[in-house]
């Protein structure tokens, strides 16, 4: 009996030591006076447009992406589809089937009579108009995957394989007028595009989906000599030009550094793995993007597409933390001004989308949805990133954001580790009467689970507990 009791005491002691080891500590110091980039917002791609339009739950999906109860996204990315009818003589692009109302019932015979391309065109127009109408989403932009096929060097292929791209010998002006006509047609429908991008992943000569190969030299020439003049000729002088949207951040760094950017207003790249990783068979979200090493000329830098396009569907925090690390790296280390996820919704379960659809038609919200909200709900357009120093810890990833006009601030803490972390949060140059917290973890049953309000210690600091494998945002107001 005595031996059994001693063994029990030893087991309890070991358990206590293990519990202590499983708790990390950290010191976070926020310095109000040191400020970095201004945030322009968060968004998602408006598609796949056809399944979005045809979904019986499309209104709920839209609300959960752009509405106040959902992600509160303020940006939306569309596509300059290559299938629109185009009158070269007049420059008019027809963005919806003639005589068709955008509120056409998806189950009607009239809708079913449309071609696949016409359905996609109608669907995108409906989505953009409804998002603007319902949520006043201020930043809408669109990218071109490929010019109309008859303008390409190989008009029989949508892809960029074999370096298939714009035929510069005949079609540079035509393609520029096509983009300008697209923007003008949307303007006449009440949608003013904030910006347009003439290329989506211009280096892509491998994939089967629509793409167009560009060199850095040709893309810069096209923007300067053709696209900017074509937009101006349509009275679209304030429509910004976005470039170059390469698939990997490092590729965009190389591409843009060798490109004439005189008429590029917003510099952009995507957030997928680098080309070396891709060659080794890796895919998905870039977990270690590097800050661009050339001068951007103080122009806004946007990350315009990212998702986990690798592996089987994962709606847990394993997938959520991949996105959290990716977002932190881009926002807090690469200093981007905007972050746009790839797909808003899909009619299947897939890691490329923030909202997925189960086999019974119900919606599924992976933890990537909640992680996106940790930023998009609590870090608003117009906030500035300010200094957040982390000490006594190498696991947490911390970024701090403030609204200089109101004093509101948010601190996003990512804990990809397996240990709970106790933090001391020190405030330098300001004080706060209290903090609210919003948690995403595997065991949270609600989106952005709100915790108990936190009060400052006697010296004005706060004590924070950050659960393992979680993302938690703390919000307050400086005084």
Automatic annotation (TrEMBL):
Single biological process term from Gene Ontology: sphingolipid metabolic process
GO cellular component terms given for this protein: membrane
Annotated Pfam families: Glyco_hydro_30
Keyword entries, A-Z: Glycosidase, Hydrolase, Signal
Family to which the UniProt record says this protein belongs: Belongs to the glycosyl hydrolase 30 family.
Protein name: Glycosyl hydrolase
GO MF term set: glucosylceramidase activity
SUPFAM superfamilies (UniProt xref): (Trans)glycosidases, Glycosyl hydrolase domain
Taxonomic superkingdom: Bacteria
PANTHER family: GLUCOSYLCERAMIDASE, GLUCURONOXYLANASE XYNC
């Amino acid at each position: 009996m005595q031996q059994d009791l001693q063994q029990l005491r030893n087991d309890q002691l070991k358990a206590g030591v293990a519990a202590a080891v499983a708790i990390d500590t950290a010191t976070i110091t926020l310095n109000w006076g040191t400020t970095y980039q201004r945030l322009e917002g968060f968004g998602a791609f408006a598609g796949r447009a056809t399944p979005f339009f045809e979904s019986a739950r499309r209104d709920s999906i839209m609300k959960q992406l752009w509405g106040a109860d959902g992600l509160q996204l303020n940006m939306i990315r569309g596509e300059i589809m290559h299938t629109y009818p185009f009158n070269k003589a007049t420059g008019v692009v027809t963005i919806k089937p003639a005589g068709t109302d955008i509120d056409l019932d998806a189950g009607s015979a009239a809708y079913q009579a449309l071609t696949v391309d016409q359905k996609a065109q109608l669907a995108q127009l409906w989505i953009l108009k409804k998002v603007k109408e319902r949520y006043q989403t201020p930043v809408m932009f669109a990218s071109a995957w490929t010019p109309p096929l008859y303008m390409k060097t190989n008009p029989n292929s949508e892809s960029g394989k074999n370096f298939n791209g714009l035929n510069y010998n005949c079609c540079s002006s035509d393609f520029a007028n096509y983009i300008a006509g697209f923007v003008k047609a949307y303007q006449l429908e009440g949608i003013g595009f904030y910006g347009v991008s003439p290329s989506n992943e211009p280096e892509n000569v491998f994939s089967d989906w629509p793409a167009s190969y560009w060199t850095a030299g040709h893309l810069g020439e096209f923007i300067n000599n053709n696209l900017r003049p074509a937009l101006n000729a349509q009275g679209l002088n304030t429509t910004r030009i976005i470039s170059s949207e390469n698939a990997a951040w490092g590729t965009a760094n190389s591409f843009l550094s060798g490109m004439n950017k005189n008429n590029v207003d917003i510099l952009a790249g995507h957030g997928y793995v680098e080309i070396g990783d891709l060659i080794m068979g890796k895919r998905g979200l870039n977990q270690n993007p590097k800050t661009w090493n050339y001068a951007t000329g103080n122009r806004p830098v946007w990350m315009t597409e990212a998702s986990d396009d690798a592996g089987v569907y994962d709606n847990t925090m394993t997938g959520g933390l991949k996105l959290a690390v990716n977002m932190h790296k881009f926002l807090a280390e690469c200093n981007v001004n905007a972050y746009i996820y790839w797909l808003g919704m899909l009619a299947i379960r897939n890691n490329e989308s923030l909202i997925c659809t189960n086999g019974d038609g119900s919606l599924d919200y992976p933890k990537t949805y909640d992680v996106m909200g940790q930023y998009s709900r609590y870090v608003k357009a117009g906030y500035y990133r300010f200094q957040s120093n982390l000490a006594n810890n190498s696991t947490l990833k911390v970024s701090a954001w403030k609204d200089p006009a109101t004093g509101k601030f948010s601190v996003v803490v990512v804990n990809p580790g397996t240990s709970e972390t106790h933090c001391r949060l020190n405030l330098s140059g300001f004080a706060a009467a209290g903090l609210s917290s919003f948690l995403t973890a595997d065991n949270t049953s609600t989106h952005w689970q709100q915790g108990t309000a936190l009060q400052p210690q006697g010296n004005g600091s706060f004590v924070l507990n950050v659960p393992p494998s979680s993302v938690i945002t703390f919000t307050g107001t400086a005084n």
